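Q: What residues go here?
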């Protein structure tokens, strides 16, 4: 994909009723749903793990995760001053969790609850690290979702 600005992402990239892959020009988008079909309240975590990076393309990658219409945009810290990129949450650096760049917890997920998750990935052209040496770069990552029982819900 070529680099783009976050401003070029469609406003409806997280539209309700959309599911599965709905990539656009120069971005990847995928929407799925998480439903608590059990009888107990639980917590769940979503984690994004980078498996491989070629030509340091992760320097300019953005990962935006929408949860029920609200989003956070994640990016690697600026390599010059190690500060977060503008309007982003920095990729996490978790000891003994090689490759984990995002780890978020969702509390109190009640029985019958449904979360809509959309993951959008693009190469941010306004990032100062988005330079010609990244051309031909590749990134492989995956997402893991885990849950944890919290307590019995009284009926």
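A:
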């Amino acid at each position: 994909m070529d680099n783009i600005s976050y401003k070029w992402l469609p406003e409806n990239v997280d539209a309700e009723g959309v599911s599965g892959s709905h990539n656009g020009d120069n971005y990847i988008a995928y929407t799925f749903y998480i439903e608590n079909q059990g009888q107990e309240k639980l917590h769940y975590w979503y984690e994004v793990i980078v498996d491989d990076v070629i030509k340091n393309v992760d320097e300019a990658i953005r990962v935006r995760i929408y949860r029920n219409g609200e989003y956070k945009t994640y990016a690697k810290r600026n390599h010059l001053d190690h500060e977060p990129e503008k309007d982003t949450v920095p990729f996490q650096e978790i000891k003994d969790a090689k490759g984990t760049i995002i780890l978020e917890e969702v509390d109190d997920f009640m029985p019958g609850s449904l979360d809509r998750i959309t993951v959008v990935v693009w190469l941010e052209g306004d990032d100062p690290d988005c330079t010609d040496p990244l051309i031909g770069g590749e990134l492989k990552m995956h997402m893991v979702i885990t849950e944890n029982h919290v307590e019995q819900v009284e009926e």
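A: Context that may help when evaluating the design: The mean pLDDT is 92. The CA atoms of residues 31 and 118 lie 4 Å apart.
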